[in-house]
Amino acid sequence: xxxxxxxxxxxxxxxxxxxxxxxxxxxxxxxxxxxxxxxxxxxxxxxxxxxxxxxxxxxxxxxxxxxxxxxxxxxxxxxxxxxxxxxxxxxxxxxxxxxxxxxxxxxxxxxxxxxxxxxxxxxxxxxxxxxxxxxxxxxxxxxxxxxxxxxxxxxxxxxxxxxxxxxxxxxxxxxxxxxxxxxxxxxxxxxxxxxxxxxxxxxxxxxxxxxxxxxxxxxxxxxxxxxxxxxxxxxxxxxxxxxxxxxxxxxxxxxxxxxxxxxxxxxxxxxxxxxxxxxxxxxxxxxxxxxxxxxxxxxxxxxxxxxxxxxxxxxxxxxxxxxxxxxxxxxx
Length: 332
Hints:
There is one protein chain. The chain has helices spanning 56-61, 135-140, 308-311, and strands at residues 2-4, 7-12, 15-21, 28-32, 38-44, 47-48, 70-71, 76-77, 81-84, 87-90, 100-101, 111-117, 123-130, 145-154, 157-166, 172-174, 177-178, 182-183, 196-200, 203-209, 212-218, 230-231, 238-243, 252-258, 264-269, 275-279, 288-294, 314-316, 320-331. It is mainly beta. The model is unreliable at 1-5 (pLDDT under 50).
């Protein structure tokens, strides 16, 4: 085991891992580079913020159910196929309904490109997923892209900066999402205690059929309207939202409030993230809530008849690279 400043190369449940230790606030995080680059643990104020897997086998079995899964493209591609630039793409069908879900980096190893500690004590890890390292990805998605994530742990916050490069010779459709699982332990009185409350920046709700958006939107009502605080147990299981108005600083926010302690957990995302999915496993309490910032909506690659401003789908030109978005998770 060798130390690199406040980053430790270690082993977790038999797989390689990185342990990040921030000194000013004592925050800690752990990443499993070979298991989808998942940042599977985040400890702030001595409390686990994420839904942490019990071991590596659990993360391998259900890579999209723990920690912070990385999704490219996010959510489902209907029928595991789409057409772009006069080419038909056929992806791995990995749901019982025959769809493709959650993209390529989720179940594959990433490279650790860099670790360092800044002069003011922030801890950084740079992870990279290169499609050229995975022939099975290129067979489905023939674009030699490189997705780079920079995680920065500083004080009581975790920041993620994303960068996408298309190293190929043809335009590339692009969408990115994250699926962070925030821990919200069940109350003593199941379904009755309103300890946890959530809210989201103003947004329209996706109309969906069998978990696939139709491309239409509606004004959410009641517990589906997250502009005002809503009890966690009332939140819909897997609701999608298109942002209509950012906050004053141009970012959008999801917030989780613990009414007993007054603790507030905020996930804020920059203007690249135009859609959110709010996932809580099943109706009622399940011990977590997952606010998912997306740069595009579910199945955006099959909704090209709609404006890109609506779906969020981006096209990365050949031999170009660009920032893909930033989000910050922080505790108050």
